[in-house]
Structure formats: C-alpha cells, structure tokens
Amino acid sequence: MTPTDPGPESTRPPPTRRRPGGRTARVRTQVLDAVLAELGEHGYDGLTMDAVAARSGVHRTTVYRRWVDVGGLLADVLDAASDDDWQPPDTGSLEGDLAALNLEIQTALTAQPPIVAALIAASFRSEKAFHAQQRLWEDRYARCEIVVGRAVRRGELSPHTDARRLLIVATAPLYHQLVLLRTSPDPHLPGHAARTAALAAAAGAFAESPSAGHT
Predict the structure, then answer these.
(1) SS3 letters for 108-176?
(2) Among 182, 149, 180, 154, which residue's Cα sits nearest to residue 166?
(3) 3-class SS of residue 182
(4) CA atoms 111, 67, 80, 164: torsion sign
C-alpha cells in the first residue's frame, strides 16, 4: 500500500474486470508468474518480453499480442493482485490492527526475492505500472478502512475520523525506512508506528473537516 489522493471518483465502485477462464486463465497465470520471477531475479531493467515468454512457455507472439510491452505485463501483475480476498487483521484494538497490518507490510517489503519492492520501483519507470500501482493501493486502503470503522464502533475513535489519513500516517514509516532509506528491518517499527498513529487518532489528529467529502 501507499498513499493515494482520494478524488471525487473514489466513492464510486471500480469497474468490474472480467476474469478469464480455462486456457486463457492458465496462460495468464503462467505469464504473470514468469514476470514475477524475472522481476525478482533481474529487476525492471532486466525484464523483457522475450524472457517472460521463454520462462512461461507461452509463445512470444501470444505474449506480445496480449500484453504489448513490459508495462502491460507489470500492470496486469498489479491488477491481478486486487483479485484476491485479503482483509486486514482483526486483533480487537486499533493499535493491534495497525501493528499487525504494518508487520504484514514489513514482511512483504523485506521478502526475498524482493518482488514488492521491485514492483514499486518499476512503477516509477513505467506509466502503465504506475497507474496499476495506484489502483492496487487504492484498493488496499479502501479495504483497510474497516480497521478504523471497527475502532469507531468500539468507542476508540470519533465517528468523524478520516480513515484514509490515519492509515497513511500509520503505514508510511514502513515505506520511508524500507523503500526510501533502505534500512534494515526494525522489529519494533511496525508496533511503534501503529502506536503513534493510534494515539494521534484518539487525540483527534485525523478529525475530518466539515467540508470533507470522503470518510
């Protein structure tokens, strides 16, 4: 996840993507798995259409016809990630939920091969990947707003808390340390960032302005 700017269209349901089935689905899975493997081993600069075709066992003509270029491959990898049924942790408290979420983020960002970090880096090099990355992060932040909703129902937060701003503040330290500064993982960082954000939220730091058009 990463911060996105929730514009006026953020309250509209996203367009439904048709999920391919049968042989088409198998080809897509083979190709996207190959993209991830190539990206993890060689990074964006080493990712080529021909290498993906060879690794996936799918004819290069099919790969070029369906995905066109490397940007198309990366965009489909990111879009495919939104087809899962992932939901944020439910620990019984706001701080616990945020800490568990941050631990998942830290685990993903430090995994080997560094697939998630490589996809983030690629989004700065490919316009198609950039827009797909935005769609994915928007999806993840939207799913995580339930964490704030649960905290409101438990009486931990005001019902006027801006969920998106809280989530950005809670998770941003992980990206700053691990992606921008490339520091070694700190086992205390997920909990510390969560505690800081939860305390700030309880104090009203993320109260919505009267003119806010989103929750």
Answers:
(1) HHHCCCCHHHHHHHHCCCCHHHHHHHHHHHHHHHHHHHHHHHHHHHHCCCCCCECHHHHHHHHHHHHHH
(2) 149
(3) coil
(4) positive
How many whole angstroms separate alpha carbon 211 and alpha carbon 6?
Answer: 14
In sequence order, what DSSP letters do the residues of 14-71 get, joined into one string? PPPPPPP-HHHHHHHHHHHHHHHHHHHHHTGGG--HHHHHHHHT--HHHHHHHH-SHH
Tell me the sheet residues that pair with 161: 207
Report long-range pairs for 48-55 (Cβ below 8 Å, ≥24 apart).
Answer: 49/73
pTM for the whole thing?
A: 0.83
List per-residue pLDDT tens for the chain, 215 residues long: 433 333 333 333 444 444 555 888 999 999 999 999 999 999 999 999 999 999 999 999 999 999 999 999 999 999 999 999 999 999 999 999 999 999 999 999 999 999 999 999 999 999 999 999 999 999 999 999 999 999 999 999 999 999 999 999 999 999 999 999 999 999 999 999 999 999 999 999 999 876 655 44
* Residue whose structure tokens are 């340390």: 177
Q: How far apart are CA 44 and CA 41, in angstroms?
A: 10
Using the Cα atoms of residue 189, residue 195, residue 199 and residue 204 in order, give the sign of their dihedral: positive
Q: How many residues would you count in the chain?
A: 215
